[in-house]
Design brief:
two-stranded antiparallel ribbon; globular; disordered N terminus; 9 helices; Rossmann fold; alpha/beta
Length: 223
């Protein structure tokens, strides 16, 4: 996989800290490229509502769940924050009214430091403000995992990192005066894990879970 070496600038306690990081920034796998080819061929829509993220977003039947709204699904299975950055300009060219972003679990799965993920969040937000400043941005929390049914070894033990990442994401959201959507209120059990009845593999959601997702967005007036 492509490796890049660079200096990551971190702002901490008012001091600029420079840390050398070894970063796996690869995202353009065959499935990603197939989805991008599809996105490039479908009719363009302006002033739409975009659900943007990885497979968790991709599996949502948003158009069915939100009838009458101009909703498009821009989820790509396996995607990460680098992948979102790589395709963001095409989405912003359509000047979406709203973007609902959920991304980060695949970054954690490949062992990327939270500082790198947050740096990419900052870049995503800056790009939206630059190219489509009227777009309203909703940042959704990274979902918890359910270890008991999770078959993927690379995601084992990542729930603590999910919690840490969400805390950092909330700080970014506050900094930019955006809207944070805490999906753990819907999907997490008392132990902070993904509710077993809502998943079959400990990470992805069953179809009915998306109904609860949209109910939550409506109840909280996020949509």
């Amino acid at each position: 996989m492509k490796k890049i070496f660079g200096l990551l600038s971190l702002l901490s306690c008012g001091h600029l800290l420079i840390a050398q990081q070894k970063i796996d920034s690869n995202y353009a796998n065959p499935y990603y490229l197939q989805r991008m080819e599809y996105f490039n061929q479908v009719p363009k829509q302006h002033n739409n509502i975009v659900f943007l993220g990885n497979s968790i977003t991709e599996r949502g039947k948003w158009q069915d769940l939100l009838p009458g709204m101009k909703v498009i699904n821009r989820g790509i299975g396996g995607d990460n924050t680098f992948g979102v950055l790589g395709r963001l300009d095409g989405i912003l060219a359509e000047k979406p009214a709203r973007i609902y972003l959920l991304i980060g679990i695949n970054d954690l799965g490949r062992g990327l430091p939270i500082a790198v993920i947050i740096h990419n969040y900052q870049r995503i937000i800056a790009r939206i403000k630059q190219l489509s400043p009227k777009t309203k941005v909703y940042i959704q929390s990274v979902l918890p995992l359910n270890e008991a049914v999770l078959p993927y070894a690379y995601l084992k033990g990542k729930n603590v990192k999910v919690q840490e990442l969400n805390v950092a994401i909330q700080q970014v959201v506050q900094e930019h005066h955006l809207t944070y959507i805490n999906l753990h209120e819907v999907f997490a059990d008392e132990q902070g894990e993904l509710k077993k009845e809502l998943t079959e593999d400990g990470i992805h959601l069953k179809p009915m879970a998306y109904v609860e997702w949209v109910k939550y967005l409506k109840a909280k007036k996020f949509i």
